[in-house]
Amino acid sequence: MEEAAALKAVVAELSGRFEMEAWSRLGRGHIHRTYEVRAREEGVERTLVVQRINRTVFPDCRPLAANLEWMIERTRGMGVGIPAVFRFRTGQLFREDASGTWRVMERVEGDCLEVIDTPERAREAARAFAAFVFCLDGEPRLPWAVVLPGFHDTPSRLARLDEARSRASVERLGACREELAFVEAWRDRAGRLAAVLDSGGLPARVAHHDAKLNNVLFDRESGRVRAVLDLDTVMPGTPLYDLGDLIRTASHRGAEDERDLSKVRIDPELLQALCEGYREGAEGALTGAEEAWMLPAGVTITLETGVRFLTDYLDGDRYFATSRPDQNLDRCRTQFELVRQLAAWIPKGCHGI
Length: 353
Ligand code: GN1
Ligand code: MG
Known about the structure:
Layout: H1 3-12, E1 18-25, E2 33-41, E3 44-53, H2 62-75, E4 95-97, E5 100-106, H3 119-136, H4 154-167, H5 170-175, H6 177-190, H7 192-198, E6 205-207, E7 216-218, E8 225-228, E9 235-237, H8 239-250, H9 268-282, H10 288-292, H11 294-314, H12 327-343
Antiparallel strand pairs: 1-2, 2-3, 3-5, 4-5, 6-9, 7-8
Bound molecules: 2-acetamido-2-deoxy-1-O-phosphono-alpha-D-glucopyranose (GN1) and magnesium ion.
Magnesium ion (MG) binds next to loops.
């Protein structure tokens, strides 16, 4: 079905009387397709965010819906914002039809940053992500669905790279020889976070799992985070994954796919602001072991994300959305450059890396 017709049909199925008036593409997510839709509800103008869920990544929306229901419940009145999700006439949060699996949310006004500007914003993003997961992690423990098993299991990400390598084209293999050698040099260290988690050395909690800078919205006036976005990967894990992703995306001012690596430079002030903001949002809940793993988690998640980009490059760019050739290879290179620099911030002999 054509996009406009599909969106119109989805909006018309919402509980309430919505009629679509205009639509456009929104955001830079690598997975779902997101739209901004202007609609009229009983004469009132509304701006909606409509998402077509990537069915290859999320073939079953039931665990997503179950977790989303918990998030709505747990964050109510907690001062941790998530966008309101509209229900369909069926009472469900998702709708599946011939054109896809769909979800509709309110449009929260605010700034979504691709690149960090100030340490204050870095601190605030980290504080918000921590406040969000620690609010979900309270007692009683909720029965979260494991939406994507092993999502941040670095060793299995490495195994997938090995598979991709064995079936890749000679041309692509040749283009990333240095990156493959980099992975070999890091292979043993890459699995340490997964190993310490497996052995119970870090508390099992809930994590967002995709805590990149552009997954929060900042209020334009106050500079506070208004909402945490992209909630599909919220599931059991360690919040260190999230701090790791924040370090990956907000401890420097380079773009994720920056080709000029001299622009990818860790800024110690940003790094410090992220760690302080995360501690603040966790309100004293981080254990000593978690504290010790903060920077090593940044290295691990950045390395792992580089490995995922490299895997997708070798696989012919099938997972992450790309807008130009070699974009996944460029993304991988920026991640590995960050790993090199971040590693220098970790005290020698630290058990993590
Ligand atoms: C994807 O959807 P988006 O762009 O927020 C990916 C993350 C990666 C990220 C890299 C479900 O996130 O895991 O870290 O791209 N999400 C999924 O930018 O795979
Ligand atoms: Mg996103």
